[in-house]
């Protein structure tokens, strides 16, 4: 459900607000990483540890993917060397 809501929010927002929206999205992902590390950190092995580990992996993919997309977008605006 969150994926569909996020998709429609991003596509319905005006272009001027895309940068602040993406900044908030990155902040939310960093909070998810911290929460996942707390869940995966305690000793023992259980359901919460597995879910915390999966959350760390998925949020990391989201954050690093965002950096890669941003890098590609910024490289499109660089002037070509002559």
Automatic annotation (TrEMBL):
Keywords: Cell inner membrane, Cell membrane, Membrane, NAD, NADP, Plasmid, Translocase, Transmembrane, Transmembrane helix. The keyword Membrane applies. It catalyses: NAD(+) + NADPH + H(+)(in) = NADH + NADP(+) + H(+)(out). It is a multi-pass membrane protein. It comes from the Bacteria. It holds the Pfam family PNTB_4TM. Its EC number is 7.1.1.1. Residues 1-79 form the NAD(P) transhydrogenase alpha subunit C-terminal domain. One of its GO terms (cellular component) is plasma membrane. One of its GO terms (molecular function) is proton-translocating NAD(P)+ transhydrogenase activity. The chain crosses the membrane at residues 21-44, 50-70. Its main location: membrane. InterPro entries: NADP_transhyd_a_C (IPR024605). It is an enzyme of class 7 (translocase). One of its GO terms (biological process) is NADPH regeneration. It is found in: Cell inner membrane. The transhydrogenation between NADH and NADP is coupled to respiration and ATP hydrolysis and functions as a proton pump across the membrane. PANTHER family: NAD(P) TRANSHYDROGENASE, PROTON-TRANSLOCATING NAD(P)(+) TRANSHYDROGENASE. This is proton-translocating NAD(P)(+) transhydrogenase.
């Amino acid at each position: 459900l969150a994926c569909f809501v996020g998709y429609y929010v991003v596509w319905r927002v005006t272009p001027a607000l895309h940068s602040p929206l993406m900044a908030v999205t990155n902040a939310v992902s960093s909070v998810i990483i911290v929460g996942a590390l707390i869940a995966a950190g305690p000793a023992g092995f259980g359901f919460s540890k597995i879910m915390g580990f999966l959350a760390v992996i998925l949020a990391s993919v989201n954050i690093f993917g965002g950096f890669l997309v941003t890098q590609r977008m910024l490289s499109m605006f660089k002037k070509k060397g002559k």
